[in-house]
Structure formats: C-alpha cells, structure tokens
Amino acid sequence: MGAFTDAIERLKNFYRAAANSTAVPGGFGKGGHRKLFDPYNADIVAIGQGCADYAGMAQGAANQAGAWLRPVMPDGSYAAVTRLSATTLAVAGPAAQLDNCKPGRAVKLAQATPGVGYVAGATYDADAGHVVVTVTGIAVEEDLSEVWLGQSPDNAPQQADTPAGADLYLSQNCNGF
Fold it and tell me: Can you tell which superkingdom this protein's organism belongs to (predicted)?
C-alpha cells in the first residue's frame, strides 16, 4: 500500500500551518493552501481508502477464524442436506440459505469419498423448502451426510483496484486444503 503509507508520511511530515516558502514547501499559510489544497485532499482520500481496505482485510481475517461452517436453520440446528444428483445437493431451510451458497464458495462434502469443490450456482426451491446447490470440482455421492462451507468470497480482502473476480482467490485458495 505505497500510496497509503506515502500519504500518511506527507500528513505527518510535509503539510504545515506555517507560511509556504522554499524552507517550508508544505506550508498552508500565505497562499500555500491554494496550491496544496488538491494534493492534500487527494492524500486524505488515499488514507481513507487505505483504512477501508485494511478494515475489510481485518474483517475477512476475523471471519476466516471459522472458515469451515455447516449451514444452520433459523433455530440454530444444522440444516439437513440431500444429494439430488452427482452435481447437485439440497440444503434445507429458508431462502436466506442462498446467502451461504454464493458461487465460488468452497464446499467440503462428508461422504464415502470426501473432498472439496466449489459452488457453481444456487437457486431456492420454495415448494421443496430448500436451496439447490450446483457444485463443481467434486462428485456428490449417494451417502452424502454433511456439507461444510468455506470462506465466503464476500470476505476476501480486496483492494479498490483489484480486477473483477479476484475476490474469489481467498475462497478458492485459503480454506485449509
């Protein structure tokens, strides 16, 4: 975060209330504010964005503490899971379960051949009262007993200038497998 640390350094050591002069080039006094106003504000924005980025990273790290979680029902009990096909499974519960099943989120399946895959997509089936989750990277077996969800892609640290899709890195690479 070079822009962030550089901006902090300028706020600490460059900008001054003293008169602007050769000896005090960061002075706001005697007209210095006219030429320094825009760069000063740009530094404030860079610091604000840097703080927001660090806060997002801290939140992601805090959420990472419980990286593998089982889906739960509103009453706190674990949601039942059912195999629908080799690529789909059902997670019981309300439509709010869709928030847990975002594309790119890692899934760990407890079955005869356990393994890890990723959510490819999910829809809510109101008639059946469950979320239908399509997975990739692992086959869903007949004896599926549990589904564990990895880190949500929403919690992945991401800089403002990160290319679209890069937020899936944490989900796909940092779930302990």
Answer: Bacteria
